[in-house]
Amino acid sequence: MRVTIACPEARIADANQLARCLGLGPDDDKTYGAAQWIDGAGNRYAVAGGVVGPNFSQSASSPLIEPGWGCDLAAAQRAQALIQIGQPAAPDRIAAVFGDDAMASLAAMGLVLSDAG
Amino acid sequence: MAWYDPSDLSTLFQDAAGTTPVTASGQPVGLMLDKSGFGFHASQSTALARPTFTESGGRRYLVFDGVDDFLVTGTITPGSDKAQVFVGVRKLADNNGVVAEASVNSGANNGAIALYTGTTPTWGVTNRGTSALNVASPSSYASPLTNVLAAIYDISGLNTAIRANGSQVAQSSTSVGTGNYLAYPMYIGRRGGATLPFNGRIYSLIVRFATSNMTAAQIAQAEAWINQKTGAY
Q1: CB contact (8 A) between residue A103 and residue B27
Q2: Are the beta carbons of A28 and B68 separated by less than 8 Å?
Q3: CB B195 within 8 Å of CB B96
Q4: What is the ipTM of this complex?
Q5: C-alpha to C-alpha distance for B224 and B62, rounded to whole angstroms
């Protein structure tokens, strides 16, 4: 199962803590890089995408537990509260879309790569 | 030299530490071992940024999603001013995307090289001794497209060329300055791990730095081997 996730620019730090909390190691706090994707209104997003396990949706919505390598749990919880599945990208949400074609998922979220990207 | 062969499952692991082997199509690749013996293994420690191993139609390859996937090697120290890159590749979009690049930006760093897709649509190479030169194929390489590419770089020999499916498609003798290729990591699939994501497949990749050029026969042999893995022509 493949997921593509769009994180508003202002939420990147929190979202990386959520990725570190749910991920496989401390380097998962580098999941969201520069905000190189834009929506129709010009809002900017960092996008990440990849293969996730079948329990991803459940894990992403369950109470968070700090992993052995540590994370900022408060930041992770703030990001978790913003996750919405199958919605267009918006500045007040972290949108996630499931689908094998990342480009199709990005189109569904209304995002295009900015010129700088 | 570095040699990556995704058709050989013994070289692929799901995690960057190399503890969980890739065993089936659809699994992420966090580590791809270098088969050259030089130890320039390519890895990705961030889970969602890992390319995906895929087996389909009798071929095995890595899929780079055009979003955030890339692999990066440790520092490669060439000590020479000649290089060749051979890759079996399928592009699925005509964006600017890095297939392979030494350093975080070959246009800005002396002694660096790159092979990339272009928007027009082209394949392109960057060759930089102390000044950068971009050489692009004709604008007739639109996605989706499968090619065996060979990029030829020679600083003192004044040669920058790109070959597709066994034929030269662009060449320049413009000087790229002086010096050798310098010590950098090799990024596969994304510039510096940050921009210009490649959307497509890599079937096999060989990067060679050497003090001597390859003969025409050696280039043809390398292309033929890559094509066995790719089926481009």
Answers
A1: no
A2: no
A3: no
A4: 0.93
A5: 20
| Beta carbons of B65 and A27 less than 8 Å apart | no
B-chain residue closest to A16, CA distance: B46
Least CB-CB distance to A27: which of B28, B46, B196? B46
pLDDT digits (tens, 9 = 90+) for A50-109: 988 888 888 888 999 999 999 999 999 999 999 999 999 999 999 999 999 999 999 999
Q: Which residues of A touch B16 (CB under 8 A)?
A: 27
Mean pLDDT of B152-162: 98
Q: Is the pLDDT at A116 greater than 70, yes or no?
A: no
User: Is B196 in Cβ contact with A102 (below 8 Å)?
Assistant: no
The size of the A-B interface in CB pairs under 8 A is 73
Closest CB to B67: pick one of A24, A25, A47: A47
Q: What is the mean pLDDT of residues B96-106?
A: 97
Note the pLDDT of residue A115.
Answer: 67
Statement: residue A117 has pLDDT above 60: no
Closest CA to A7 of A97, A74, A117: A97
What residue in B sits closest to A22 (Cα-Cα)?
Answer: B47
Residue B174, judged by CB atoms within 10 A of its CB (0-12, 13-18, 19+), counts as exposed
